[in-house]
Amino acid sequence: MIKKETEFRSDLWKTLTSYRVKIVRSIIKNKLFTGRTKKEIQELFGKEDNHYDLDEWSYPVKKNFLGGETYLLLNFKGENVEGHRLYTVYQLGNENILSI
Q1: Which of 3, 17, 19, 96 registers the highest number of CB atoms within 10 A of its CB?
Q2: Is residue 3 part of a domain?
């Protein structure tokens, strides 16, 4: 059981979408991973489809009833997390529409 909203558990992030939804706002609000290295982020969140050399990594959080998918975006400056935010992508035919 998660005792406080700022307690991040890697095992739950990797296995439970419901946990991702619950913790993601706290990650952003409290800047929980600012300053962490890319290596630390990979260990905590998993690799997903992120390429190590890129300065932005995204992790899926949830799908909504309108067909959109919300992601946690981590911005890096060099090797360290500089910022976090959420964005949602909606698919309209063959086009993706980004909502920030």
Answers
A1: 19
A2: no
Closest CA to 52 of 43, 60, 61: 43
The whole-angstrom separation of Cα 38 and Cα 31 is: 15
In a domain, 59, yes or no: yes
Backbone angles phi, psi at 57, to 5 degrees: -120, 145
| C-alpha closest to that of 36 among 90, 83, 87 | 83
**Strand pairing of 95-99 and 69-77?**
unpaired
Integer Cα distance of 12 and 98 in angstroms: 27
The total number of structural domains in the chain stands at 1
User: Dihedral of CA 18/21/22/27: which sign?
Assistant: positive
**CA-to-CA distance for 79 and 52, rounded, in angstroms?**
9
pTM, entire model: 0.83
How would residue 34 be classed by pLDDT, with cut points 50, 70 and 90? very high
